[in-house]
Amino acid sequence: MLLRRRNVVLTVPVVLILLVWSGLIGLVALLAPGLIRPRLGAIVRPWGRFALRALGVSVELEGREFLFSDEPRIIVFNHVSLLDIPLLAAHAPDRPLVLYKRELGRVPLIGWAFRATRMIPVEREHLERAIASLQEAGRRIRAERAAVVISPEGTRSRDGRLGEFKLGTFHLARTTGVPIVPLVMHGIPKVLPHGAWIARPGTVRLVAHPPIPTEGWSAERVREYARELRALYLAELGED
């Protein structure tokens, strides 16, 4: 009980600091958009590292060289809990382009920062709008040499296990020919399970796999590509 109370006391000011910090990033992005976008990764990484350190979460990262590259790519991750946000921020590529669910845009200050830094909202309930978001990502990924960050599950896991992969990510990879970098995140449910707001101190392990070439992918085999990538995650997570 004492540990839980201590975590609550620590978490509240950390969240407030992160919200204010997000608002400042959003403000600078509005005032100087040309300054922020090329340096966005370097700007958000301290945000994520502060959050993890303050919450007592340490990270072991394997395959760092696959996350940080000058080439455009699609970084996919297993979506587990709210801890995913600071984890991804702390290891953001230099030119991140995040596809986020539109509801996140309503979170005070953080949502403002997402919009001000020109991240791409996705309305999962409206197929046409979701497709339009993926098309926008496709246009920008090569123009900005960006690294798209997206969860093929589309939403957080409710039980910590890997969900089904939706096909939008794979259509994006097929139409752009940009390689996919699988980022597998281990140990998150023990630190911050789905639905929880109070983190427990612990260690999370991130494993970035070598890029998967997508040049020449065919529309007829998109479901097969999704199954193959999900099998990689299942094996890595020990859920197969």
Provide a descriptive summary of the structure in words:
The protein is of the alpha/beta class. It has one domain: 3-Layer(aba) Sandwich (Glycerol-3-phosphate (1)-acyltransferase). Helices cover 47% and strands 16% of the residues. It has ten helices and seven strands. A seven-stranded mixed sheet has the order 1-7-6-2-5-3-4, sandwiched between helices. The protein starts with a helix and ends with a helix. The model is unreliable at 1-10 (pLDDT under 50).
Concise synopsis of the structure shown:
The protein is an alpha/beta fold.
Question: End-to-end distance, in Å?
Answer: 36 Å
The radius of gyration over CA amounts to 17 Å
Strand numbers in spatial order across the main sheet:
1-7-6-2-5-3-4
| Protein structure class | alpha/beta
Question: Which geometry do the CA atoms define?
Answer: globular
Low-confidence spans:
1-10
The overall pLDDT average reads 86
Which CATH class?
Alpha Beta
Provide the β-strand percentage band: 15-25%
Give the count of structural domains: 1
SSE topology:
Blueprint: H1 2-31, H2 33-36, H3 40-54, E1 57-62, H4 64-67, E2 73-77, H5 84-90, E3 96-101, H6 110-116, E4 120-122, H7 127-143, E5 147-150, H8 168-176, E6 180-186, H9 188-191, E7 202-208, H10 222-237
Parallel strand pairs: 1-7, 2-5, 2-6, 3-4, 3-5
Antiparallel strand pairs: 6-7
Helix pairs in contact: 1-3, 1-6, 3-5, 7-8
Name the features.
single chain; 240 residues; alpha/beta; Glycerol-3-phosphate (1)-acyltransferase; 7-stranded mixed sheet; 10 helices; 7 strands; 47% helix; disordered N terminus
